[in-house]
Amino acid sequence: MMRASPARILLYVISALVLVYLIMPVLIIAPISFSGARFLSFPPPSFSTRWYQQYFSNPAWMQATRVTLTVAFLTVVIATPLGVAAAYAICQSKLRIMRIVHMALLLPLVVPIIITAVGIFFVYAKIGLVATMPGLVLANVMLGLPYVVISVLAGLQSFDPAQEMVARSLGMNRLRSFFAVTLPQIKSSVVAGGIFAFISAMDETIVALFISGGQYQPLTKRMFTALRDEIDPTIAAISTLMTAASFMLVLLATRLRRRNASC
Amino acid sequence: MLALVSPALLVILLLIVLPVGWLAWQSIYHDGFTLENYRRVFTEDIYWRSFALTFEISLAVTVIALLLGYPVAYLANSVPRGWSILILSLVVLPFWTSVLVRAYAWLALLQRTGVINQFLRYLEVISEPLALVHNTFGTVVATVHILLPFMVLPLYATMQKIPGDLMQAGASLGASPSLTFVRVFLPLSLPGVLAGCTMVFVLCLGFYITPELLGGGRTVMVSMLVSRNVELYNQFGAASAVAVVLLLSVLVIFFVVSRFISLDRVLGQR
């Protein structure tokens, strides 16, 4: 066992401080959201759920919530099959071009999001997709694809392709053998990828700032606009709900992944 | 196989390659070819200052993130597995909170009547609230917070691969723990340092939400230059030229770094 040298103690102290710095903002939101005070104060002078009531009774926030959930849901429904098909092809094919395809699918993570956002805005402006639901969904599908591809590729790496060969040698066609043999075994990484795409769509802000408008504004855009004007504790309530949703989904995704890794 | 990738590829082509290509085209073409937009970007003060500020802030954020992230990654690597999972979960936890939510949290913490100022006044350390936000300081604090996981994860991944025997070998040859660290561990962890620094620096170059919400209008980073040129001034050509220069900077950095380490190492962390 290592002796606790001064250097070691210093390491503990610094790391603890850094971890507090990382966690504090996440933890501070919930108490603020239950504060009875109009203005931000900490610790909150009284307990109340008025900011939650305000959120749930405000038609504009509710509409924005519907938009966010619809966009996130449709993003998962579209991005997951596209991502799975692409990851499968990248994994199976020995064509050299697949390396380039793989890189291309990761582009959304490489190009600064502000550039993507402005570029999409210009293209959408030409073809009339600004402030529409399809426009918002398509952009989020593109942004969510890398998460599905990365997750499914990781799943496929621990899968033995010989099993699918066996199924095909027994007379199944490629499609059936994929659904009967491969997919069940990579199911959890598919679901995990879909969950990450959902979170990505739920949290996406910058592209939405440029291309969404009218009645099709997601929560994040309304929150951003509200934050520029004043600090309204309603946003703390929304933030708390969003964070709780994210954490539950991530927990689910990581548990699925771990189970996948063990088999 | 190509048929299977084509839908995904089509989405990528239409929604990122085409838009970026459009930007590039628009930056040089407006009723005929022109380099006017680039002349402005490279000669006008406001553009220069913004690029300089963005690189300064990105550099500061990268250095701070490295100084904060290295000890955490080191600790996570040197404690029993249960503890390292706990430490890494704490690092990744904020990762999955919306950037917007975290920017809001930092506003709540740092503003004049915010949690930190109230606490310091309660302790009577200060009599007047400190200006912690709506300036570069607030921007850096929140940006480091958001980018720190991108530093810790590659560092940790690299440190995991350093065999523990090497340290023991160093010790058995009579080197002090600090000497083994400096001569053996630190050099072996450098690929992780490079991967983490690259990711943090590049992401910071394009950061938008934190400088916009916490910079108080004074910290005009390049991303804000792009958005203002679009939203306020309708200067699409200028916005495009700024975006192209930003993108080229990012690509050059990735290219240079890829000569030293595999890019998978930089990108594979998320």
TrEMBL record, chain A:
What PANTHER family does the entry give?
INNER MEMBRANE ABC TRANSPORTER PERMEASE PROTEIN YDCV (PTHR43357:SF4)
**A single GO BP:** transmembrane transport
Q: Which GO terms describe its cellular component?
A: plasma membrane
Report the family membership: Belongs to the binding-protein-dependent transport system permease family.
- Indicate the transmembrane segments per the record: 9-34, 67-91, 103-125, 137-156, 177-199, 234-253
Instruction: Tell me what topology the record assigns in the membrane.
Output: Multi-pass membrane protein
Subcellular localization, as worded in the UniProt entry? Cell inner membrane; Cell membrane
Q: Which InterPro entries does this UniProt record tie to the protein?
A: MetI-like (IPR000515), MetI-like_sf (IPR035906)
Protein's name according to its UniProt entry: ABC transporter permease
Which PROSITE patterns does the protein's record reference?
Answer: ABC_TM1
Q: Which SUPFAM superfamilies match?
A: MetI-like
Domain of life of the organism encoding this protein: Bacteria
From TrEMBL, chain B:
Where, by residue number, does the polypeptide cross the bilayer? 50-73, 85-107, 137-157, 169-186, 192-215, 236-261
Specify the ABC transmembrane type-1 domain's residue ranges: 51-257
Q: Which GO terms describe its biological process?
A: transmembrane transport
**Quick one: where is this thing mainly located?**
membrane
Q: Enumerate the subcellular locations listed in this protein's record, separating them with semicolons.
A: Cell membrane
One Pfam family here: BPD_transp_1
- Gene Ontology CC annotations of this record: plasma membrane
Family annotation (CDD domains):
TM_PBP2
Where does the source fall among the domains of life? Bacteria
Q: Which InterPro entries match?
A: MetI-like, MetI-like_sf
Establish whether keyword Transmembrane is in the entry: yes
Which UniProt keywords are present, listed alphabetically?
Cell membrane, Membrane, Transmembrane, Transmembrane helix, Transport
Could you tell me which Gene3D superfamilies the record lists for this protein?
MetI-like (1.10.3720.10)
Protein topology in the membrane: Multi-pass membrane protein
Query: What is stated as this protein's family in its record?
Result: Belongs to the binding-protein-dependent transport system permease family. CysTW subfamily.
Q: What is this protein called?
A: ABC transporter permease
Organism for this UniProt entry: Bradyrhizobium forestalis
